[in-house]
Amino acid sequence: MKKAVLLCMILSLLTVFTGCSSKEKVDVVQGSETLYVKKLDLKEGFIKGVDVSSVLSLEESGVKFYDYEGNEADIFKTLAQSGVNYIRVRVWNKPSDANGDGYGGGNNDINRAVEIGKRATKYGMKLLVDFHYSDFWADPGKQMVPKEWSKMSLEEKAPALYEYTKASLQHLKDAKVDVGMVQIGNETNGAMCGEKTWMGVCTLMKEGSRAVREIFPEAKVAVHFANPENQSYENYASKLDYYGLDYDVFASSYYPYWHGTLENLISELDKITDKYGKEVMVMETSYAYTAEDSDFFGNTIGEGSAVVKNYPYTVQGQANCILDTMEAVTKMKNGIGLCYWEPAWITVGQNSYEENFEKWEKYGSGWASSYARAYDPSDAGKYYGGSAVDNQALFDKDGHPLESLKLFALADQGNEVALQADAIEDVTVFCDLNDEIVLPDKVNAVMNDNSKKEVAVTWKDVDYDAMKKGGVNTYVIKGEAEGREATCFVNMIEYNFLSNYSFEDGEWGAWKVTDYGKADQIYVEEKSTDSLTGKWHGHFWSAAKNSVNFDLEQEVKDLKPGKYKYAISIMGSDAGETAIYAYVKINSDLFATNEGHLTGYNMWEKINVAPFEVTEGDIITVGIHIQCAGEGNGAWGKIDDALLNSVTE
Ligand code: CA
Predict the structure, then answer these.
(1) Using CB atoms within 10 A of its CB, is residue 72 exposed (0-12), middle (13-18) or buried (19+)?
(2) From the CA of 391, how far away is ligand 1's center (Å)?
(3) Terminal alpha carbon distance of the chain
(4) Ligand 1 centre from 239 Cα, in Å?
(5) Residue closest to 646 by CA, chosen among 339, 502, 432, 467
(6) Annotated catalytic sites, by residue?
(7) Ligand 1: centre distance to CA 450 (Å)
(8) Contacts (Cβ under 8 Å, ≥6 apart) of 399
(9) What would the DSSP string read from start to end of 51-107?
């Protein structure tokens, strides 16, 4: 008894000292010397949220966070100082295996969420609770049922979900966490908690919503979807409406490098406000401040990744991207805020993959540990590891806040700094192997306010000779403009004066067919396996003897005087006796020819015509004559990749 009483006293003392019921006042940062911030017209109470769900695991892994003065500090205090007013946290039912080893991604169950919630509340920030209703990641690709509910029917799952939500929220309430919003499911594009019909999804969502209303009647109920570029939100909202879901906020993920334009996002969410009167928000967004990876685990975006890159990967580019997204929310009819996803998911060590891997496994500080294998074999089970977003953090790899983090504090007032180049846009040039290589002497600087300005550039170490002799190839040239690095991609190409030279237009286009033998088939065919390059080629076949007899030609005017060459490729079979030749006509006089042959399937032959001289005003016709007696099943063949180009000695 006594022991128990003593324990109670210690616990209540601890509660006082950890301050979960007493808020600490923080001073919000007032400006930045280097960050340009455009002034936004934000509504009172605009949600400036960040999702730092991985933070406890990071701290357990030894990661330290600092304030703007370089002193070690509670990250939640730094976030509050930076103008953040909402902390979002994901909640998984039971993110661990039978031995209690965590799946990773912060190992966030409700107890972890309470810890995070208490720290948010301490610094005056509200909590946004994100129930995945799964034991691990839920997104448009997967919505797996929690292990404990896996045998349940929908009728059994619904009360289980209600009770779970209610108990979890009660836990937060008991800890005096200031819960402002609760999300019923995460990126639930037509599935949730193992249910794959809207009837099933909505049945469960209604139970979640009911639990929120009972425990936190002041909090908002949110639903959350992804992929606004697919323009399915109106359809989703109609299902929620049909099944009578009680909710306040229709939220969308918006990763600018994947999810279409901001104009589309605004229009998709405005439809929901127009039709159903809901509030809307961006629930997840992020952007890179560097192309570098710092934790030895590959990143979602970086150098050369095939994504939309409307902003440079710089601290200022990152800030401008978020500010534009925030501005888009202000343009929505009922936009209430934006949450940045995982701005603190930085590396847990500086030295090696092995060192980091040990921590990801032990503390759950990577996106997934190997222990998640049994639950999620096809994704986590294969690709488990660290952070794929350390280059999209708002803290550097050592835990110091980036200037971009201040944008939450500065967006209302704006922050003017001197206009200067932040990065130089890459340029791409195409040079004909036969022409002089000319590199641009001006490039576009991306200024810190995201405007563009043409500036002079100096290219370094350009080996023109090697590029001319290297054949068809791409070269990366580095240079300098406005003190920033510039990059030029030089594509050495063989210029082609023919149009539709590989038949990729899917029709003859500029080509003219003259069919003397009335062949059964002469057309442009789509079949990449039968094409020399691309998907399309010219096709012919005819069963009757001597019925393959046609010309295929194209006329070209206004060539610069000089020497030119012409070639075209063929393959085919069952030709019998043939008269096949590529030809060049100058002003309708046959000038040059060369013979070709049909020797078998995919035995392509390139027929080259000897170089010829073009003078001012000449009309050049290049073509191929194909005449086959035919044998067996009839002559057939394919024509592809014609080339007309100038020649230099
Ligand atoms: Ca990484």
Answers:
(1) exposed
(2) 7
(3) 102
(4) 38
(5) 432
(6) 187, 284
(7) 26
(8) 63, 64, 65, 66, 346
(9) E-TTHHHHHHTT---B-TTS-B--HHHHHHHTT--EEEEEE-S--B-TT--B-STT-
Residues 539-569 as b/e (b if ≥16 CB within 10 A, e otherwise) read bbbbbeeebbbbbbbbebeebeeeebbbbbb
pLDDT tens figures, 140-156: 999 999 999 999 999 99
Q: How far is the CA of 105 from the centre of ligand 1 (A)?
A: 13
CB 7 within 8 A of CB 1: no
**pLDDT tens across 619-638, in order?**
999 999 999 999 988 999 99
| Angstrom distance (rounded) from CA 262 to CA 322 | 11
Can you tell me the distance from the alpha carbon of 548 to that of 589, in angstroms, rounded to the nearest whole number? 24
Residue type, 361: E
Give the tens place of pLDDT for each residue, 180-226.
999 999 999 999 999 999 999 999 999 999 999 999 999 999 999 99
CA 168–ligand 1 middle distance (angstroms):
32
Whole-angstrom distance, CA of residue 315 vs CA of residue 211: 41
Whether the predicted pLDDT of 21 surpasses 70: no
Q: What are phi and psi of 627, to 5 degrees?
A: -135, 120
Instruction: Return the structure tokens found at 102.
Output: 């965590």
Q: Encoding tokens for residue 507?
A: 């029709």
Assess whether pLDDT exceeds 90 at residue 10.
no
Query: What sign results for the dihedral spanned by CA atoms 56, 62, 63, 68?
Result: positive
| Strands, sheet with 536-542, edge to edge from the N-terminal-most edge strand | 521-526, 536-542, 635-646, 562-573, 600-614
Residues 6+ apart with CB under 8 A from 83: 28, 29, 48, 406, 407, 408, 409, 410, 411
